User: Fold these one by one.
Assistant:
Number 1:
Amino acid sequence: MDNKLKLPLLVLLLNCFLFLALSQTASNDDVEALNSLKDSLQINIPSWVGSDPCSGSWEGITCKNSRVVSISLPNTGLKGQLSQNIGSFSELDTLDLSYNKDLTGPLPAEIGNLKKLTKLSLVGCGFNGQIPDEIGSLPQLVFLSLNSNNFSGRIPSSIGNLANLNWLDLTENYNAFDSTDFPQWLLTMKNLTTLRMQEANLSGQIPAGFFSLPSLQYVVLSENQLNGTLNLGPNYSKKLQLIDLHSNSIGDFTQQNQPPSLKVIQFVMKLELPKLSANLYKSQMEIHKTNVQLLVAALIRVSVPCATVPCAITTCIAGVYAFRQKLRAERAISRNNPFGNWDPSKSNCGTPELKAVKQFSFKELKKCTNNFSPANDVGSGGYGKVYKGTLPSGQLIAIKRAQKESKQGGLEFKAEIELLSRVHHKNVVSLVGFCFEEGEQMLVYEFVPNGTLKDTITGKSGIRFGWHRRIKVALGAASGLAYLHEHADPPIIHRDIKSNNILLDEKLDAKVADFGLSKPILDYDKDHVTTQVKGTMGYLDPEYYISQQVTEKSDVYSFGVLMLELITGRKPIDRGKYIVKVVRNSIDKTKDMYGLHELIDRAIRDGSALNGFEKFVDLAMMCLEESGADRPPMSDVVKEIEIILHSIGLDPAADQSEPSTSSSFQHNEVSLESSHQPYSSESLYSSSEYIQKHHEHEPR
């Protein structure tokens, strides 16, 4: 090569090497800011080692072009106050520090320096003081969630400057905000889809123009002091799905120029009715999912003189309200004794909602547990203790006995029993009966002898099984979950699928347990909106976590995590590492076993061939898709697991445990008299707070 060309070429190559070297390390400003963040928030994440946070090893940190673009550290035990250095991340797109309750102090004004921020999520922390005005200086912000903190003072009107915002959540700051009229700046937010300002100390009337925001879908303004007339206006958003205004003082409703193609809207509202001339009816009217035509027909303006309304209609209306008042009085009486019409000798007498469950007397349960002997105590949780008992027929039962702090109202307890009594499937733990007397609230379940799947995976139970049995357990759990989603009446979203909530019966078949966080799916409640995310970190669906809208696909995600647990034998979050991310980053489909040898549980890795392993991993990763729409329904998951079993020569319906060549486990090795407690503190019967009336959107 000509010497004249060599020198420019060498210079060019040198520049390329320098560029690559520089592009692989984080900028000094970001490194300094992260180190400051690490010190001020006492971050103790094992993967945060080395001098370069953009190396790809720092958990929760994402970089692009050598700049930090995402800090996602939910539920990582952060403590202290957020320093002003947070404003130094000039390229930051996402900041999520949610569910760190010891993250306190004010939100620094420097947050307004993050001009490229699109998502700010600080849910469930301990921030206090006033939300800084600078929050309105984030031109690209799309998602703002500051709920479940201790913010106080005035809500900054500068939020109205966030032209791209589609999600605003300020709920559960416990009425610490200054009392204010409905914010007029909300009317300027053309891209807003979801507004959640429960307990925000709002008063006055909601302007009709607010409902005309073209993208508006969900409005939750419950537990405020809003009053006056609710007027949706003539051009309300056709995307509206939920308006929750319960626990306000709204006195009337009006609707004009109703479009011919009106979409169904779910209303949760109570109207304060004016007095009738005879002063007979003082009540509240509850409205649930209806279209506006029916709503307008049902909302009676009793203050209008009879001369302007046909007297026949007025008389009919008065009769309707009198009937409603009678029902309300009956409900008030029955609240103290919700089982007044229950005949213990007949499974359904007087209470047709209760299917095939028995009402036990306190004396009966006391006898079958030997006076609730400590020897019969097989577990405990936040709800109370669980006792093993034996009925006169010889049937083993597990009795969940509520402690004082966990007891519900009588009607709520009855509602819980009504829902549980409808659940009947071989892969779901069955309710046998209940006790509601002498101040006790007890639920009686079938006894499942071999404890939790978690205890088996970790070796705590003394039971060990191989790869094929793990697939069969996955099939059982999937079948139970598919039943809850598609065949229970009403269908149920579990919301807390995890290995602790899968129990193993005498044949080591899986049974889904613990409906403590479950949500019934009513016909008009397909999109659930909850003020606070419920579930277990590590199993929690990130889409549910971000949107706070739970669907059946949230359970599918949790089941995907459970499948990885069966493969790896590891906890979902182990030493600061998230198993989903670890597996996803390790998969290499060009290699045998997808290159996951080191992650496979040693208890099965060193045994027989893992037939069907790759298909099982593929299915797990489908369940773990980031978007719920891309995840399969549980019925499809069941079919896929059955296909895997067929492909390896096993009958999904058979009771055999493992082929003799692949497992040393024998059923006669299971001992119910071992020192192991079959119900751990986190397993079945740890909670019963899932029953709500159908108009409520906040889990108990």
Number 2:
Amino acid sequence: MRNYAGRGLTVYGLDSEPTPPPSPSTAQPLNRKTLLPVGPSRRVVNSLRRLPLMKSQQRVFRWSEDRQKIRTVRANVSRMSHSVHGAEIQRVVRTGRGQIGQTEADRSKQARRSKGKTESVSGVTVTPQSADLVEFSGSVSLSCSSSGSSLSFLWMNSSSEVTASDRVQIKTTEGGSTLMIINVTRYDHGLYYCHVQNPVSAARSDPVNIFISYGPENTTLNVSPSKEHFVEGSDITLGCSAESRPSAEFTWFLNGDPLPDTGPELNLKNIQVSQSGNYSCRAFNNKTGRYQTSQPSIISVLEPVSSVTVTPQSADLVEFSSSISLFCSASGSSLSFLWMKSSYEAKASNRIQISDGGSTLTIFKVTRYDHGLYSCHVQNAVSNGRSSPVNIFISYGPENTTLKVSPSKEHHEEGSDITLGCLAESRPSAEFTWSLNGDPLPDTGPELNLKNIQISQRGNYSCRAFNNKTRKFQTSQASAVSVLENNKLSGGVIAGIVIACLLVIAAGAAGVYFVYKRRRNLKDTPHSAKTDGPENTRLSVSPSKQHYEEGSDITLSCSSESRPPAEFMWFVNGEQLPHSGPELELMKVQMSQRGSYTCRAFNHITGRDQTSRPTEIVVNGYMSSQRVSAR
């Protein structure tokens, strides 16, 4: 017998006389055949492919081990037999060097022959029985020994075969095998077995536990619930995790100082402001002797806002002569302050200063537009609060004091009833006294009633407005009241009376409208709007002409860039007109109304004003009547 173990084949001696090959008609194509393994742990597969020849006994056989081609031979078929249903297949192939192949029957015969020669596998043991190592800090050597002969060895880690590599060395001798793992890693951890076999038997050792300690690594701290800020009294859970074998032990720190708590969780119940800070956890492996600290997590605990108050509770001031400071206080932590005037935000400007972290509001040289209800809004990340309103009362005036006569006539008949009314812009409301030809009358109040007027009562009437807070007074322009003995009046007199009445009524209405419009704008201004201006104040005239005929209708318009919208006042030759609003209408204009016109835009939020460039109105000719109105 010749042994071609290096090629995974066994070759037997040649027959003395070759047997005639079967005829092509009786030969059966057999394409695959399994050979006896060379060793107990190896299996040789013969992939046999026959290339048929019509008149030749030669065949080509290709042998492979584990499906890898190792040899191609040419041979003559000397004997072939098989059963129909494949119970037994025999074929002997003769080559120039011997017979190749083995049948199932041959296998059984050899097993019976080897039984008396090969000792069965027994007593498979591995030493040491266990190993406890630290990753990257040690190596391990396992020795496998067994009784028996013709032994082959195979190392297994759980269900996977252990193969040699740059860190794994396997040395096998006749009676044993050694497995060495150098510089162990966490992936070498597990149960190891030694498998031993020979042609007649196989056995396996008891498992050997290789325990590899590593870590801790990737130490992470998680906060639940996850928030940027927590209200005082909340419950918070901090969890710490780390990759480690064996499981890590955990300790906790606040601002770098150790806490008495241990374990993977830190429960903070009813947390207080004093517990705010940087929390971290440290993982420790008592086998590797290593530890790792997590990145710190900030826990911010805030006291809710409460007890918001403003001092003083009220203030009574005079325009342009006083300043005031309001102080806001509140309980809570990390507070921010916002001042509100009625429904809009009070912002810093050239007259308004916000200081002390927003808690103090100072208004310098207060104006009438600073009058109103102020409140302080306080908030932090978890709550908010608002103070009760504080009333800032700003006194001003009197201004624009005007007198009107009703009915408005140039001359009144003796015995007529006449009412004189006095108006003034003032806070608080002005007190009124009356004069005739400069001499004081005993009458007071905003109206003077002249019943059944007599000639002796004719003259120049005027009224004086007095503000008892500002201690200021202002006297109106005098109005002439003419009383005649009879009721025969010329057309010119009647026209003059009508014109005078219209002027007085228009002046009074404009004054009232100006006050009303200014207050309305103050209320309607949204608190969230940005405030600026006025800027680019311009005056335009329609129709645009160099000269106007007496009796023409002229409209003057004023515009300005302002937020909130500006309030407008009108001037002619530097004297203020009793009109307000963005338009001034001169109906049936008279020569007396010619002059240099300007408009002034005023922003009651910013406290700033701007006057337009003057526009010259030139009127030629004469008309007998005029009317001035504003809108």
Number 3:
Amino acid sequence: MTSEALILTTVPDGLVNLLTSHLPASLPLLRRLQFTSFPGGSTPYSRVLVSADGPINTDGQPGSPEPYRTIRQTPSHFTAAYLDLSRGPETNMWIYSTLEDARNDSTSPALPPDEAALAEAQILSVLRAARRLVHEHEAQLAYPGAVLVGTINNHVRDMIRARAPRFPIHNRGDYDKLLFRIDELPPADVVLPEGMRYDRPTLDDCHVVKARTHIPRQVKTLVALPGMVIRLQDGTPIAWAFLGPDGSLTSLHCEEPYRRRGLARAVAAKLLRERTAEYGTDGWGSADVAPDNASGQALCKSLNGRPSWVVSWSFLARAESNPGKPKMSGKASSEGTKVTMGKNAPVNQEGAGQVSGSLAAESMARGGGFSENPGATTGAATSAAAKSESETTATKQSGGENKTSLPAEQTDNLQSATSVLGASGGQGGPAPTYIASQYFEDTAGPHGKNLKEGIDYEGTESGMKKALNAEPGSEDDPARVAERQFQHSQLLAAGGTGPRQHHAGDETIYDHLEVNEQA
């Protein structure tokens, strides 16, 4: 049985060497852990998650806030991940499993079933640890209820989807992972045209880069990344490229007037050759390129890049509620809870007479036709008597007290309502004055200058009057109007919830290269 994954605030000693021994499959996570040593490469929310079948020993000084961890033996299988929930909307998580080693190479023999099961269990152990951190995270996530996992190997993603439905994962498109060997890059720098020079990006350059890209990346992240620019004599940047937190070639761009001159290829080659070693000296580089990004594919292949496996950017959903908090019932916030009083519930019994507030009651109060119906008054008296008997029975059953007495403020409201309704035989009295003022005209006519009687002023159309006079089924029929409004609201809601991610040309929001330069 796989033990619970460790959650560490620092990179454990030996993990970098262990990942290096599993290159190139471990390259994205290895580079992300190496990036933690860069200025701004980590935050107080950075966590390293490890699940291994070998021991991870504890060292360190007694009383230290967290014992220092070190891997002293080489496990046969392990899963490791880097997670930073404060990085949104940028990538939150990178993950590697030894399951990838055999799956990436079609010529390698398949793992024995017991080893494959162990590797899969380690992946799920790390995901449980990540979910725990999500539950404990107090700040608002950039993607509510989800973590953005970057450049995840599709073999791992598909395993999670097939074997662990409790961890819903939704990918946002596939990308080819192209690998470079630094010593196999084109041998020399391209000689730039007169008036251009290579340089490293400045803070102002990073603001320009952010303005040119649709990838959600912060300026403070760009400042921390190794980069290379080509600029004019006046300092204007015209082409640039960066190495991402996972060391991949990213944000490669050339301004429109300077394209098709080989500048994008030149700046990418110089960046990979000169700045990859800032992560490590293993000699590996990479790029994630969408299959339909023809120019990006061609440029990487001109740098001797080789497609090696397929990755994706995926949302790992938080499907379960916090285990330390009560689970929600799934009801709408406006839905109440039904409460029954059982056999002691008061019952109001009414005869065939008028119902207070009904048209029949109003007819009787004004001497209308309903008052001529036989037994109408008798029915009202019978209803009142039944109600009185019911209230008396309920009082006796409660031990002589009226258990349904209202608070004083509600009693005052009830008395006020009674005075409005009147007390003549239970019939409704005159309506409140604000009701009358809405429907009856002042006999003295309108007051003030330039006023006219009624609602139909010149140039003004009464919606109420149109509705009352409309023929059933016509354009002004209130039912037809309501139906059109409902259909309109349904159309607005059909696009889904949340911000819509737009495409730009043949690129997507997670397309690292953004290459529009012909190789």
Number 4:
Amino acid sequence: MFPISRLEFLEVTKPLLGPLQHKTKLALAFSGGADSLCLLFLLHRLLLSKEGSASCFPKSTPPTIVAFTIDHGLQRNSKAAADQAAELARRLSVEHHTISIPWDSHPFPSKPLDGSAMEQKSRDARYHLMFAAMQSHHINWLGLGHHADDQVETAVMRLSHGSAQFGLSGMRPIRRWGMGGLSALTWAGLPGMTTWIARPLLTFPKERIIATCSAEGLQFITDITNFQPSLTIRNSIRATIAALDSTGGLASDSLPLLGRGPSMVMRAKENARHCLSEDLEESTSAQLHRWVTHHGSQSQYHEKQASEYISKYSRPSPPSTLLLCTQLVPSPEVQAAIILRVLRYVSPNPWGHNTSQSRRKATSIALIASRLWPMAGQELHAPFAAGSQVLWASVPTLQEGLLLRTSSVCERGAVTPAWLAVRQPLYRRRCPCHNNGSPETGSLCLPHDGDGTVITVVFDLRFLIRITPHANPLISRLKMDKLCFSVSGHGPYHLPLITLRGPGLSGVVIWKLDTSNVPLSATVLTKSEWLEVKLIRSLEPC
């Protein structure tokens, strides 16, 4: 197997560097293993070369790399391994930082002991520390060393969980970090919307990574826990594929040692035989690589079709809603891609978390699709919800896309069937957030001490609100030491309303988002010396 060439790496990495334009640093998760060391070497060489810097950063200076190593403290030699990783980075003249996980210290859980809990808890803790380190270094791009073999293992696991095509395509080469999960450990908030995770090695198998390290004289760390099938499901899958590649079958006495891996891999092989047009004489790993690549190319095609459909058939609508004309029926795969993207855009759940996409349940997606694009002869117009706190309402529109307010116009026959996706009405108040951008959907009171500070809050996980109190003439005239800004939702779309409270003030409305005052489908909803309100949800595929 031959090493990864400069040109190959440039071709796969250049499309992933868009968010880095005019940035001074990028981050890399660095364990010192073959994958992360290979990525560190290739990325470092690319950024230092004249060809790479001129091609990827024609209008700015290439960023420098900061390598972060997370010491999980789960093995006796974990500190020694972290020190070795630091030395490997030093040899390449790369800035390096080791961060230890403070188990049992909020928000970190107690140190995990068993396999499944250890894998998930370690991952959550690792990403939490990595994200915090990136924020402190003002970095918005993280490179990970996942490769083609990791893609296969991910797809096999997702198949066992019932994932459809979008899940079987594996990990994306680049995606937003997103707002994170619902716990303090997994929460990322607004900064996650402008932070990116990139995986430049996804198309290269492990063999080529090892070949690259060998050709360049890179001495990587070998983590023996990666080869213990009983430790994690991923290890079990990896060991099963390796056994099938080497012997063509599985010995009966090895099955207990491999755990769930054999059944999951055999199911994936069966799925691959059904979806691949060619039945080649090839190894299990080669077959599953083709299987994941097939689903990946199909998903890219369907995402592109979904983007074109949304662009062509969406119409202007109030902020944080989406009005979609549905007279043209796309393929079921494109329907699913459209639905998932609209749910994530409209939902008040964290962007990027599976709760913002009805947990990607096939039943929920199928229900929504059957209502938006009903079978011939069916007329389904009643409002409905199918997860993610998104309400779908059938609304008549003019051909230009304007919502109709009266039925008289409908009788003229110049209307187009359409569905309006809106944030579901708030039936009960949930725990409010503070001005650090944690989750919030109800009302929120922000104290003001008259010190000239800028108050920043993410309201309903849909709107960014920045208030500069001393720049507001009304507040300046009041000259109060203690005031309270109350942000709450109003109207059918739960749009932000800002009121002022204090001694002698029972709630003076100083600003509200009125759809008649804002261009439909606008992102910046208002911007003045004292107030800025922006829509922060993204309709992009990643």
